[in-house]
Amino acid sequence: MALPKSVRALAGVTMLIFVYLVVQIFRAPGQIKGPDNDGSLDDMIRDPNLDATGEPPEPLHRVEANNYDPDNPNSNRINATLLSLVRNEELSGILQSMHDLERTWNHKFNYPWMFFNDVPFTEEFKKATSAATKAKVYYHEIPKEHWEVPSWINHDLFVESANILQEQDVQYAHMLSYHQMCRWNSGLFYKHPALAEYRYYWRVEPKVHFFCDVDYDVFRYMEDHNKTYGFTINLYDSPQSISTLWPETMKFIAGHKGHLAENNAIEWLKDKDRRPDHNFKANGYSTCHFWSNFEIADMNFWRSKAYEDYFDHLDRAGGFFYERWGDAPVHSIALGLFEDKSKVHWFRDIGYQHIPFFNCPNSGKCKGCVTGRFTDGEAWLNKEDCRPNWFKYVGMD
Fold this sequence. Notes:
This protein has helices at residues 5-27, 91-109, 123-130, 144-147, 155-167, 176-187, 218-224, 245-255, 266-270, 276-281, 299-302, 305-317, 319-322, 327-338, 387-393; strands spanning 80-85, 113-117, 137-141, 200-203, 209-210, 229-231, 234-236, 288-290, 295-298, 344-346, 352-354, 357-359. By secondary structure, the chain is of the alpha/beta class. It folds into 2 domains: 1-30; 41-393, Spore Coat Polysaccharide Biosynthesis Protein SpsA, Chain A (Alpha-Beta Complex), CATH 3.90.550.10. α2 (91-109) links the parallel β1 and β2. α6 (176-187) packs parallel to α14 and α8 packs across α12 (305-317). The chain starts with a helix and ends with a helix. It comes from Zalaria obscura. This is Mannosyltransferase ktr4. Keywords: Glycosyltransferase, Transferase.
């Protein structure tokens, strides 16, 4: 029996709507691009690294005649050093990093290299690294009291806590040496006797790349422009690894309000708009942090009473072992709370990569990286970029 004309018409319209929806589905992007989805972040439409990148403002100190020669006793170098925590078996990785940084910067300025290890360096390591630079090179063993697990840490509780972290896919949960490294980098490295006479350092890790020629003394820049900390990459952290770090920080602040800087960056630390799930899991912390495998910093900040008090509080809380508090969030929270935010500088002109993230400026001085690329990994890694938050609350200086 033939269907009534009205029913046939309705069926036809329904079919057309169905076809239209199918077409739209296949034409649409795979996901809506936003802070919790794969793809670019929707609140930083244009990566500022795509814009022409020049040097920071003068004054800048440059090589003139022999003013930075390695053996010049009256050189323009200040009390600063290149610093690396590295194992003997990481020799090839640190040589790669040295070759890049020497080629792009240090062959001009000849700042000394300082290598630290919890065991003695081999002669092979010393010979190869010394041959990679004209600058002076020093090798130091970390004091056992700086590397050992503190007496107040319960081993059984550490193991059980690591089991819980592993269930949440937190990396290195059971690797005791990783926890020791995070603690040392957070609050003990600058206490090494070999660094007592130094103020500034540039942290260099194995297997990193530097892409851009830098023609000014970055340490003199820090000093002349009253900068405390310099970064290239700004990321979100794994909230499962630091779930009690912010609550412990708030406990500390409750009794030390005088340590807070007047012009601080607490809004960057507390933001919950872009990654609300991170803020929730980290109990009020955005998890934004400077990726500390690159940092150029003034150790006087770590030596300050505010930071020393803060680190001691965190150390006693045990989170370096019972969770996986890293030096990156610890340093970043301290800078965001106890330092004037104008003293933190984005070195946008220093091309840098630590797998899988980049800082690649738009400059004729750079080669080997793609301008404006943030990651060469999966597309979802773009959402880990926290620079938009920093630019929102602080700016691009």
